[in-house]
Each structure stands twice: as C-alpha cells, then as structure tokens.
Amino acid sequence: MKLLKTVPALVLLAGGVLASMNAAADDTVFTVMDDPSTAKKPFEGNLNGGYLAQSGNTTSSSLTADSTLTWYGSATAWSLWGTASNTSANDERSSEKYSVGGRSRYNLTDYDYLFGQASWLTDRYNGYRQRDVVTAGYGRQFLNGPVHSFRFEFGPGVRYDEFTDGDSETQGLGYASGTYAWQMTDTTKFTQGVSVFGSEDTTINSETALNVAINSHFGLKVAYNLTWNSQPPSTAPEHTDRRTTVTLGYKM
Q1: Residue of 179, 205, 188 whose CA lies nearest to 26
Q2: Burial (Cβ within 10 Å: 0-12, 13-18, ≥19) of residue 10
Q3: What's the pTM?
Q4: Of 117, 107, 189, 186, nearest to 151 (Cα)?
Q5: How far apart are CA 210 and CA 249, in angstroms?
Q6: What are phi and psi of 125, to 5 degrees?
Q7: Mean pLDDT score of the chain, rounded to an integer?
C-alpha cells in the first residue's frame, strides 16, 4: 500500500504498452514478407495495439494501432495495411497520425518479382495535411526462409505533399527498399526494413522490430521507427523523428 501511495498517477494498460518518442512524419516501411511461393495459407493478417492512460498530477493518453492483411495466389500477393497513433497531455493533443496503403506483388520466377504500392498519410502535427505516394518496380528475393528472408526492390514513383501551411507539391522520386527477417526461434522473429524515397525532399524510413509469440494467436511486438527528411516542413523543422512502441498483437 505504501508503494501505491507514492504513485501520483493511475496507469491503465489495455491491449499492450506504448512508449513513444516524437511522432514519425512518414514510416512507410513494408516489412511483412509477401512471397506467394512460400505462403502456407491463402490469407495472413495481424493486428497490433497499445494504449496508455495516466491521471493525477498529469493527465495524458497515448494510443497506437497497426494492421496488415495479405492474400496469396499462386504467383501473386495483395496486401493492405494501416496505422493510427495519437498522444495528448492535459487535454491538449500533441500528435496525431494516420496512414493506409495497398501493395501488390507478382512473381516472375522463384526469385524475381514485380510490385506496385500506394499509400496515404496525414500527420498534421509534423507539418503534413496529407502525403500520397505511388511506386512500382522490380524486386529480387535473395532469401526466402524459413529461417532467413531478405528482399530488395526499387523503382520510380510519384509523391504529392499537402502541408498544414497551405502549400502543396508534386514530385517524381526514386524508391528503394530492403527488408530482412530472421526467425530466431519458434516463437521469436526479428525484422529490419529500410526504405528510401529519393527526390528533392528525400525521406529515409527504418523499422527495427522484435515479435515474440505468446501462443498461436497472440504475441508482443517491440518496434523502433526512425524517419529522416532532408527538407522537413517549415512548421516541423526537425529532420529526424523517432517512435518506440511495445504492443500486444493478434494473428488472424
């Protein structure tokens, strides 16, 4: 009881634990392996979520959620994904970000494939009313598991930025991404993804994650996301944003 009296706030955890450092302007890193040649079933999906609430001397709340759904054919894969996060303190919102995207992949051979993907992002506290990106190109599956998986892909794209100050910009870009997964044990999986959107305003995204299965459906995910913009919006001038999350996940 003495210990409880020394705690100035009540912390409620539902669906996981969330810890955040700043809010990412854009973390478009597709880290889910979508090779249809190694798919064990026609559909795979996951949902991760975390919530933290604190009251007392300080009132604050943080929420994060993300989901990825992938459907497999004999040589094709179709994926949908989405993320949501927001943070507030003393009834003042300090961050709010939502993004959705879609991706398709077609295997030409056991190792070569074509891909196309599109995403939409809003992150007004980091200067973006919306950011739309469309890319397509060629990929190479160097490793395809079951222990190690690694792919690299690249291609052209287009990005449309609408900033919170009212300005907007459309520009072509060059896209490249590499994703590695290591099934360390039967219950532990490590993933590392890096994507580069090269243009006048270059964006580099990185996600480092560790997934630990609790049982066949539930698991914990620890992820560290880093985003670097060469020319960030004037309303959010920091070049680098970082976000660390610990969430409870459900595998469909």
Answers
A1: 205
A2: exposed
A3: 0.83
A4: 107
A5: 12
A6: -75, -10
A7: 86
